Amino acid sequence: MENKIGIINYGVAGNIASVKKTIDRAGGSSIIVDNPKDFELIDKVVIPGVGSFKDAMLELKNDNFLEPLLNFDRPILGICLGMQIMAKLGYEYGKTDGMGMIDGQVKRIACSENVPHIGFKKIKVTAPNILLNDIEEEEFYFMHSFEILDCKSITSITQYGNHTFVSSICKSDIFGVQFHPEKSRDAGIKLFKNFIEI
Amino acid sequence: MSTRIIAKLDVKPPFVVKPIHFEGLRIMGTPSKLAKKYYDQGADELYYIDIVSSLYQREILFNELEAVASNLFIPLAAGGGVKSIDDFSKMIHIGADKVVINTHAIQKDPSIIDKAAKIFGSQAVVINIEAKRWKSFYECYTDCGREQTHKNVLEWSKEVESRGAGEILLQSVDMDGTCKGFELDLASEVVSISNIPVVVASGAGSIEDILKLIEVANPSGVAIASLLHYDKTTIYDIKNVINSHLVV
């Protein structure tokens, strides 16, 4: 197996270039997935995410990416919005069904601090797993207005003022991170190395 | 410490320049070299602003931005001459995480903020406010501090927030490039009425100025240019001093 990582290119909003260059820096081999047919060429998938829940789901559907993603039986990594849309339900610009790969719903961060939450923050690993290997207590870059709630597959949490939110999840081969590893210096490169080695 | 320390590159392609009061440009180096330098110093983020794009009414030069993005593993906010959703999309695709907009949003079409926030998420929409004191209030300027808008900075801050902007970059036409300290009243007022992060720029002449800004206004981030370009200090040193002074 070549261990080729496919980065889903959906819609106008994804920051695919940043993700690709970080995977390359981590020593991985990646391609941009523009077409559902490209799924034949890849062994792992990254769903990047910049945008809104509703538009992201719409774009995945219109580009015919939903079915191959739901049927994909190898490691998947969702980043930020890419993680959020793995949940069952989202509440950004109305109520939208997510991909339903994991439990939970995605709602606007409700806390006394400023939203969006932006900046480098430590993660606290609550359930060690292969993706977070050797990166306990590292700082990662967050940039989000929404968070995942009622999720049972939590692997780390992060503190924002008095508020605690889910910073990563894992359910068998399905991984998700609320932060942006592609924007998190060496800690992010390390996370991609872990993903490459799964 | 949670205050983000951000390096700001004012770019007149192909160089980073540093104006004083947004006038009289001096060449500081190339964007890629300085971006790498500040990344290595520990910058939390980088702001890349093409300061003449709107003024000259020319197309955005994406190649310059791409070169900066290619070696950066921290967030990059980019702007200058942004006029359409397509500009947002192109910038994000080549590696910007946030897009900074001023002139077009305030002069032509504020609804671009709503549209961009819906498509890219609020966190990707940064409003650049170029404030200049006029009598008892602050007025928004555009085109690199050239054009008056008659808009009150505080009212515009509230408006962009309600339209879905995710961050304000607050610059001061009076203080920018002077190294005489931040416009503290302006910073305090905008930070206190905003529920979104405010990054304050313009005027840092020493680490003490930055400390004072954090103590008085406590912004989400501080953007620094001259102080770093002239090697008066490093981001590493700034962070160390802040950490030792502001122990919680």
Question: What is the secondary structure topology, with strand pairs?
Answer:
The complex is a heterodimer of chains A (198) and B (248).
Chain A lengths: L3 E5 L7 H10 L3 E5 L10 E4 L5 H10 L3 H6 L4 E4 L1 H4 L4 E2 L5 E2 L7 E4 L8 E6 L1 E2 L13 E6 L1 E4 L4 E7 L2 E9 L2 E4 L7 H13 L1
Parallel strand pairs in A: 1-2, 1-3, 3-4, 4-14, 5-7
Antiparallel strand pairs in A: 5-6, 7-11, 8-10, 9-12, 12-13, 13-14
Chain B lengths: L3 E9 L2 E6 L2 E7 L1 H10 L4 E6 L2 H4 L5 H8 L6 E4 L5 H9 L4 E4 L1 H6 L2 H10 L4 E10 L2 E6 L4 E6 H11 L3 E6 L11 H10 L4 E3 L6 H11 L3 E4 L1 H4 L5 H11 L3
Parallel strand pairs in B: 1-4, 1-12, 4-5, 5-6, 6-7, 7-10, 10-11, 11-12
Antiparallel strand pairs in B: 1-2, 2-3, 7-8, 8-9
Description of the structure:
Chain A has 5 helices and 14 strands. Chain A is an alpha/beta fold. Chain A has one domain (4-197): 3-Layer(aba) Sandwich (Rossmann fold). In chain A, the strands form 3 sheets. An 8-stranded mixed beta sheet of chain A has the order 2-1-3-4-14-13-12-9. The longest helix of chain B has 11 residues, at 153-163. In chain B, strand 5, helix 4 and strand 6 form a beta-alpha-beta unit. The termini of chain B are close together. Chain B is globular, with a radius of gyration of 16 Å. In chain B, helix 1 (31-40) packs parallel to helix 3 (62-69). Chain B has a single domain, classed as Aldolase class I (TIM Barrel), CATH 3.20.20.70. Chain B has 11 helices and 12 strands. At the A-B interface, helix 1, strand 8, strand 10 and helix 5 of A face helix 4 and helix 6 of B.
